[in-house]
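Input.
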Amino acid sequence: MTNHQLPIWGADAGRWLKLDCRHYRGDRPCAAGVQGVCPSSCQDYTSIGYRIVIIKLAALGDVIRTAALLPGLKERWPTSQITWVTRPNGVRMLANHPLIDRLLPFDAETLCHLQHERFDLCLSLDKEPGPTALAMRIDARERCGIGLSSLGTPFPLNPECMDYFALGLDDQKKFFENTRSHQQLLYEAVGLEYAGQRYRLYPGDERREQARVFWSDSGVTDDDVVIGLNTGAGCIFANKNWPAERFVELAEMIEQRTDWRVALFGGPDERAGNARIAAACPAIVDTGCNHDELDFAALLQRCDVLVTGDTMAMHVAIATDVPCVVLFGPTCEQEIDLYGRGEKVQTSLSCAPCYARRCDKSPNCMDDISVERVWLAVERWAGRRSPKVGATKPVVEWAK
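Output.
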């Protein structure tokens, strides 16, 4: 990109605004500390470089794992500015990410100014009308991913995206033929090479300290092994949740066989269920069900193992290096990359995966997963996590 320079007439005639400088903000002083209008030979000038906009709203877990693209984009374009458009919960979850320059909520104000901006690359990674329509309205030299036709239907914007797009149209391919993880499919869809790039979250020092105080006040010491039980899994697909009585049985088994601590995790929808589990297991640590996104991540980082379904908490654990024991019923286990940090426990029922919205089978696919199988997986992974990730600093993986 060339420098966008604007002459200033009047008292400051002959001086320039360096609109493509990473430090220029316009509505307040320069981020590098330079006062006044940009000097003609500023030593702090740094080009924003290649401008990329990512449009990814969807479910929060999908937003988190899409962040695996960020190191790949920075490897391909080291000098670049990355803007990410998402829903408010995604803005909160991805806050502090060192590879994102601008996090914008999907709202009217954002739509107004994005349509006036110009980008080098637009990555559109949802199939819904709103985000795909935005991708078609943004001024970008190149678009990858999924767009919206004039008939109101989604379509792949580039040839490389065809496989990613087609999986949503063919159950046989999605459920039984595909062996690629979601991250690999994303990389291929936008024309990048996947080499196991990770996705990360960055709760920040203040939230980490608040989490440390919570665990200390709950009687959990630095030496304790903590097994987290995440009981929620959303309500879009049938039977993603393991039955509550199985979590109770697992918690009792852990308490009887070990000196490990057990902690409950969940969101607002799990409040009543978690209260019943906590009442049945008085020694359990209930972390609460009303945390914001990064507070949840900071608390979960303390776990040595998390038992969870295929849900947002699983992606938080993966993004914070917490080993997972993941229970798979109706969804595709092959699309989940645990990066060698955990174990998948799958149903043996032949009807899975199915992505069904309703199911009347009894026993269903999650009923089929026994407590003993989950316990054995937890036992294999407990104690392997060292040092505690909650005490480490963030890693910017693209910087080789």
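The mean pLDDT is 89.
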